[in-house]
């Protein structure tokens, strides 16, 4: 445990991005949050612990890069001097290779990511997780205990099916005493580019009512914007490319809330 | 099974070998502990499961490397579509232990499993459609199943061995995203009984296809036949102006292109219809609620393809 603490000694804030449900946009939110924090002048790292389905490298446009070894450990990939990325995808020979691992191997890998990666000085380390409440989640929270993570941002989509899984993730946070920085509702409504009619493709309002019911901060909703999916596909920063989109503004607000809630937690410690 | 890892020392006996972790070459190898502790002994449950599964004609897996692409939605529709024929007995097994969605989608929220002399009884949606999920074993919707691999595997084993499925034509297994414990376990436990094949679900974007390619590698590695790939959420028709938009853009050609490249069958596209999501939330059958949607037609065509695949399997089995 102390190894983790020592290795992350110069990382000021650690935030986990969680969701019980898959495909709700954890990686997209993690990426855009990191890019937003970077735009706010912070040094940011993203650690992708989704070992079976790593998406972060593609979303920040560094797919296929290699990790280098230095005497202190593994050097993350830097798409920008203020952005450090680490993902299992950099360690795979072929992008189509499946990581067919059971729990113990995944746990060892995650521990290594926390102890052996030379993160250096970071203002924020964002940890993107796979869906669920299993090995990866237990391991990362256990190992981060000594380092005192700031908390978790939970992502959901509006449907009852997704909200049901995120409810379980909230229980996970409670049980592991992980602070919930807030809940984001992604894919909230789709504005038809042809007629400007807003359709609720995946229903509406589920995230906000869950946040209210469970008394966690609601960070807002990100409307469905095909441009956002597109930016994730080509590894572009959405808030830089489309600053006027309502989704961009929603992401900016989330970045601001995260900045606000983590700076207070820094003052109290 | 006898694989030699890339980073192994020169005279590695192979991870599946009797000497794994014990040979002199293993001294100092970083994998030594793993090799010597994890002996691949055959679980006696495999034989018991084979016995239990002898009354199940076809076993199908619904897989996807990516989460939230519609595995559970597809599973429930596949089962419901097949069960439209009263003479076909269908069962759904949900092995997504940490995020079971099947109970809600099937309209079985708050149902409990009953125990009988011959094991756990599935919960029935209809006379010919039974369901089993960890969701039926939880006390409250807030309950999180915070389990590591071995406990999840134990439950999957129980689902296969101790559930009183009865005589069934199709058992459809819904899985969590990824290529990890649950997937390895279901494949290993069903090895004796035999899996007909897997249907792989994806959405059109490359971010999803990337993970799905990994799932295809997984199927090839563990020798599960691939029935085909379904592209879900491919195109959204505005209910107001009827124009189609690509919410999840197929920047690299989508699933059909991937299937062409990897030489696997493409089963079809399912359009994004907000009514599908709504029916799933409410636990209604989309086929009954919106029989005229283009999505209904697309679903039925895909279900027909899956069925005919299984029947072809059957005739091949009969001949041999």
Could you describe the 3D structure shown?
The complex is a heterodimer of chains A (269) and B (320). Chain A has helices spanning 2-7, 26-39, 56-59, 103-116, 135-144, 160-175, 206-214, 226-234, 238-241, 246-268; strands at residues 11-18, 44-48, 68-70, 73-75, 77-80, 83-87, 122-128, 151-156, 180-191, 198-199, 218-224. In chain A, helix 6 (160-175) runs parallel beside helix 7 (206-214). With 269 residues, chain A is of the alpha/beta class. In chain A, strands 1, 2, 5, 6, 7, 8, 9, 10 and 11 form a 9-stranded mixed β-sheet that branches. A two-stranded antiparallel sheet of chain A has the order 3-4. The mean pLDDT of chain A is 93. By secondary structure, chain B is α/β, with parallel strands linked by helices. Chain B folds into 2 domains: 1-41, no CATH class; 46-319, P-loop containing nucleotide triphosphate hydrolases (Rossmann fold), CATH 3.40.50. Helix content of chain B is 37%, strand content 17%. Chain B has an 8-stranded mixed β-sheet with strand order 5-6-2-7-1-8-9-12, sandwiched between helices. Chain B has a two-stranded antiparallel ribbon with strand order 3-4. Chain B is globular, with a radius of gyration of 21 Å. The relative contact order of chain B is 0.14. Chains A and B meet through helix 4, helix 5, helix 6 and helix 8 of A and helix 5, helix 6, helix 7 and helix 9 of B. Chain B: It holds the Pfam family ParA.
Quick overview:
The complex is a heterodimer of chains A (269) and B (320). Chain A is an alpha/beta fold and 269 residues long.
Using only CA atoms, what is the Rg of chain B?
A: 21 Å
Per the CATH scheme, the topology name of chain A is Rossmann fold
| Chain oligomer state | heterodimer
* Spatial shape of chain A: globular
Largest sheet of chain B, described in full? Answer: 8 strands, mixed
Structural class by SSE content of chain B: alpha/beta
Count of DSSP-assigned helices of chain B: 11
Helix fraction of chain A by DSSP (H/I, runs of at least 4): 40-55%
At the fold tier of CATH, the topology name of the largest domain in chain B is Rossmann fold
Tally of separate helices of chain A:
10
Proportion of residues in extended strands of chain A = 15-25%
The structural class of chain A is alpha/beta
CATH superfamily of the largest domain in chain B: P-loop containing nucleotide triphosphate hydrolases
The low-pLDDT segments of chain A are none
Distance between the termini of chain B: 27 Å
What's the helical proportion of residues of chain B? Answer: 25-40%
Keywords (chain B): 4Fe-4S, ATP-binding, Cytoplasm, Iron, Iron-sulfur, Metal-binding, Nucleotide-binding
Protein name (chain B): Cytosolic Fe-S cluster assembly factor NUBP1 homolog
Cofactor (chain B): [4Fe-4S] cluster
GO molecular function (chain B): 4 iron, 4 sulfur cluster binding; ATP binding; ATP-dependent FeS chaperone activity; iron-sulfur cluster binding; metal ion binding
């Amino acid at each position: 445990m102390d190894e983790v603490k020592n290795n992350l000694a110069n990382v000021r804030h650690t935030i986990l991005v969680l969701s019980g449900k898959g495909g709700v946009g954890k990686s997209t939110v993690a990426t855009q949050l990191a890019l937003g924090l970077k735009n706010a002048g912070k040094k940011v790292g993203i650690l992708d612990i989704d070992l079976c389905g790593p998406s972060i490298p593609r979303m920040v446009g560094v797919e296929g890069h290699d990790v280098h070894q230095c005497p202190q450990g593994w050097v993350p990939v830097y798409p920008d001097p203020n952005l450090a990325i680490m993902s299992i995808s950099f360690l795979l020979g072929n992008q189509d290779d499946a990581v067919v691992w059971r729990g113990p191997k995944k746990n060892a890998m995650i521990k290594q990511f926390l102890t052996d990666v030379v993160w250096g000085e970071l203002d924020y380390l964002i940890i993107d997780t796979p869906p669920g409440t299993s090995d990866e989640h237990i391991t990362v929270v256990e190992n981060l205990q000594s380092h005192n993570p700031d908390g978790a941002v939970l992502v959901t989509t509006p449907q009852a099916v997704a909200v049901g899984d995120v409810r379980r993730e909230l229980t996970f946070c409670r049980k592991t005493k992980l602070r919930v920085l807030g809940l984001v509702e992604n894919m909230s409504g789709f504005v038809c580019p042809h007629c400007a009619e807003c359709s609720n493709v995946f229903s509406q309002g589920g995230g906000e009512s869950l946040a209210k019911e469970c008394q966690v901060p609601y960070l807002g909703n990100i409307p469905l914007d095909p441009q956002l999916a597109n930016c994730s596909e080509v590894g572009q920063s959405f808030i830089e490319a489309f600053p006027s989109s309502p989704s961009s503004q929603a992401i900016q607000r989330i970045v601001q809330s995260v900045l606000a809630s983590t700076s207070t937690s820094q003052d109290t410690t | 099974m006898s694989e030699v890892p890339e980073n192994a020392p020169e005279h590695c006996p192979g991870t599946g070998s009797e000497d794994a972790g014990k040979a002199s070459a293993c001294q100092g190898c970083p994998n030594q502990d793993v090799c010597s502790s994890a002996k691949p002994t055959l679980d006696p449950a495999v034989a018991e499961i084979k016995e239990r599964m002898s009354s199940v004609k076809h076993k199908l897996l619904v897989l996807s490397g990516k989460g939230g692409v519609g595995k559970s939605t597809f599973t429930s529709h596949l089962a419901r579509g097949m069960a439209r024929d009263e003479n076909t007995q269908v069962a759904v097994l949900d092995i997504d232990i940490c995020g079971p969605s099947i109970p809600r989608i099937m309209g079985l929220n708050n149902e409990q499993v009953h125990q009988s002399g011959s094991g756990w009884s599935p919960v029935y949606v209809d006379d010919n459609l039974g369901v089993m999920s960890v969701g039926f074993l939880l006390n409250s919707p807030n309950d999180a199943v915070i389990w590591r691999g071995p406990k999840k595997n134990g439950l999957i084993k129980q689902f296969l061995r101790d559930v009183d499925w009865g005589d069934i034509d199709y058992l459809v297994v819904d899985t969590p995203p990824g290529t990890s414990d649950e997937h390895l376990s279901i494949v290993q436990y069903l090895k004796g009984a035999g899996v007909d094949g897997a249907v792989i679900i994806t959405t059109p974007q490359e971010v999803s296809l990337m993970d799905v390619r990994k799932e295809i590698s997984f199927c090839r590695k563990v020798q599960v036949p691939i029935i085909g790939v379904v592209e879900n959420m491919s195109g959204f028709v505005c209910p107001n102006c009827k124009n189609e938009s690509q919410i999840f853009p197929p920047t690299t050609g989508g699933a059909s292109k991937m299937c062409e490249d990897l030489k696997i069958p493409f089963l079809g596209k399912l359009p994004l219809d907000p009514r599908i999501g709504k029916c799933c939330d409410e636990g209604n059958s989309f086929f009954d609620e919106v029989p005229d949607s283009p999505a209904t037609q697309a679903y039925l065509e895909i279900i027909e393809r899956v069925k005919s695949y299984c029947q072809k399997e059957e005739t091949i089995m009969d001949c041999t």
